[in-house]
Structures are given as C-alpha cells and as structure tokens.
C-alpha cells in the first residue's frame, strides 16, 4: 500500500461525469459508480442544507479510507486491517447552482494513496450501496422465496441471486442476516396469532416481506398491549399507595406547623406579660380644668383691653417601681425638669 498520494490513472476520465445533474442523487450515483468501476469506494462525508428551506444545496464526498484513527497515548500500535484508514486525499464536491437549477459535480482531488480493491464483493460499503439501489424490501422478498424448503444454503442463494442480477453485490453473510430477519418476523407473527386464537392462512411463494413486517409490528403491539393490560391493576394499586403515603406526610407536616404556631403564640403572650410587669407606668392623675373669667371693668382695669395670662400647676407623674432596675439620677433630673407650669393666654373680646 502506498503511503503518499500518487496520480491515479483512471480507465474512464473524470471529465465525463463532471457536469450538471437535475438531482443530487444522480450526481452521487455517477461518482460512486465511477469509483466502483475503478476499484475504490466513495462515501458521503457531509451535507449542506439551506437554513430557510432545509433542502440539500451541497455535498462533500470522500474515499472510504479517508481520515485517520485517533492516536491513544497508551496504545502505540498501528491497526493492521483491510479497513485501515490511510488519510486518503480523494475529495469530490456537489453544489447547487440556482441560475441553471442543476447540481454540479466537481472532483477536487482525484488521487488515492492506497491500492485498489481486489474484489468488489469483499467491501461491505459497496455491497450496502448496491443493495440499497436494488431495494431492501425487494431483496428480502427474493431471499424468502429462494429460502423456502430449506434446500439451498446461504452461499447457494447468494450465487443464484448474483447470476440473476449481475449488478447486485451480495454474499452468504448477507443472505444469513436476511434469513434471520425473516425468521424473527415469522416467529413474532406466529406468537401473536396463537395468543389471539386465530389460524394463520397458508403462505404463498409470492408473499411480500411487507406483510411479514406488518404482522411483526402487529404482534409486537398486541404483546405490549397485553402486558400493559395485565400490569394495569398493579400500577393503579402502586399509585394509590403512593398517594396515601404522600397524604400522610402532608398531614404530619401540617400538624407540626400547627404545634409550632401554638408555641409561638404562647411565647408571645408570655413576653408581653413580662414587659408589662417590668415597665408598668401608672396613668397620669386627672387634673381639674382651670377656668378664668374676664374681670369687671372697674378702676384701672376699665381702660385695659390687653390679654392676661392664667397659670396652672403642671401635673405630677408618679412611677411605680417594678422589679427592674431603678432609674438613674440623670433620668430623674430630666423628668423633674420637664414638669413646667401650664399657661393660657386670654384676649378680651372686642
């Protein structure tokens, strides 16, 4: 296997396929068929879509052996397999041109740095591409017809299909996988019919795989529905138990909250009683209102029309000593200084 990319000589020149196509699938088929005839495998690397319409506007294709494996620090060995990636530089591009409404194919790098495939049927990628073009349902139906009677082996069935369809790549392993799919689908269909009590009609040689797939899906749905119906009472019982458990937890939480509220109320009342007992002050004594009458206009007061003042003694406030600390001398002096006589000013009416 070559380690460097050398110019690859093609039997059919690439210029014959580098043109415009009405659909990008046609361009993919053209480049893949060209590489398959030359002994290489071309796969899709990435797709570009229009963000507004989500339609495909471009593709990038590369060789099956492009890229390289990740190097692990604790593993210095090199993969020695037929599928080893050699970082092949082959690249092709498909772009949509809105002016001519065509998908144009362009080979960016036409060289490969590895040998050609000796046998096309040995490549799983080529077999998968050919089987997808042939049709998976059609191929399954063909394998089912040839596998009836159990007279042919998987290798013989693959050889017969290859002779009848030269463009199709299939080997014994693919036939074995298809037969296993058919067998699993038939067993599921038989189980569903036995559970329902119905008798399955005899299968014809031309029965399609679509019916087998439909019966398998129906059997899976029936089995799932039967399991769900059987487990429905148990689920309801579990849900009821879970609901009762959560209700009990909520009731316990509410009871704890009620106890806490009662304790807070009792503590608040006790605090209020202690404060009233510690800082209790007697209400001020009732002072009789002072009354004044305007003196009679006699003597020297006959000519006096100005205001006169009446002074009443200030009320005395007494404090009942409680169990708390006695007030300081400064507090007592401030209280004494604040007791000032009350004054009223009267004006003679005009």
UniProtKB/TrEMBL annotation:
This is FAR1 domain-containing protein. It comes from the Eukaryota. Residues 188-197 have a biased composition (Polar residues). Signal peptide: none annotated. Residues 206-230, 327-341 have a biased composition (Low complexity). Residues 187-243, 308-350 are annotated as: Disordered. Residues 232-243 have a biased composition (Basic and acidic residues).
């Amino acid at each position: 296997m070559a380690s460097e990319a050398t110019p690859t000589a093609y039997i059919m020149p690439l210029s014959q396929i580098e043109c415009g196509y009405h659909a990008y699938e046609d361009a993919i088929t053209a480049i893949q068929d060209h590489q398959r005839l030359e002994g290489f495998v071309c796969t899709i690397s990435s797709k570009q879509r229009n963000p507004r319409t989500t339609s495909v506007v471009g593709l990038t294709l590369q060789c099956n052996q492009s890229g390289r494996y990740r190097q692990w620090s604790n593993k210095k060995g090199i993969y020695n397999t037929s599928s080893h990636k050699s970082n092949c530089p082959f690249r092709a591009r498909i772009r949509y041109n809105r002016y001519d409404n065509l998908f144009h194919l362009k080979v960016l790098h036409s060289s490969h740095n590895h040998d050609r495939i000796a046998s096309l049927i040995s490549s799983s990628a080529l077999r998968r591409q050919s089987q997808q073009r042939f049709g998976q349902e059609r191929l399954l139906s063909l394998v089912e017809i040839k596998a009836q009677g159990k007279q042919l082996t998987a290798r013989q069935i693959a050889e017969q299909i290859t002779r009848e369809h030269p463009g199709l790549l299939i080997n014994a392993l693919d036939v074995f996988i298809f037969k296993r799919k058919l067998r699993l689908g038939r067993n599921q269909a038989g189980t569903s019919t036995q559970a329902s009590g119905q008798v399955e009609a005899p299968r014809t040689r031309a029965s399609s795989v679509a019916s087998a797939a439909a019966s398998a899906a129906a059997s899976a749905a029936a089995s799932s529905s039967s399991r769900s119906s059987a487990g429905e009472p148990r689920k309801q019982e579990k849900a009821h138990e879970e609901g009762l458990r959560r209700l009990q937890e909520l009731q316990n939480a509410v009871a704890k909250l009620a106890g806490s509220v009662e304790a807070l109320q009792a503590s608040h009342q006790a605090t209020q009683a202690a404060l009233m007992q510690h800082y209790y002050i007697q209400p001020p004594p009732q002072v009789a209102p002072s009354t004044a009458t305007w003196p009679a206009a006699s003597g020297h007061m006959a000519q006096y029309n100005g205001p006169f003042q009446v002074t009443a003694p200030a009320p005395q406030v007494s404090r009942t000593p409680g169990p708390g600390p006695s007030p300081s001398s400064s507090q007592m002096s401030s209280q004494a200084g604040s007791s000032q006589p009350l004054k009223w000013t009267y004006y003679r009416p005009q």
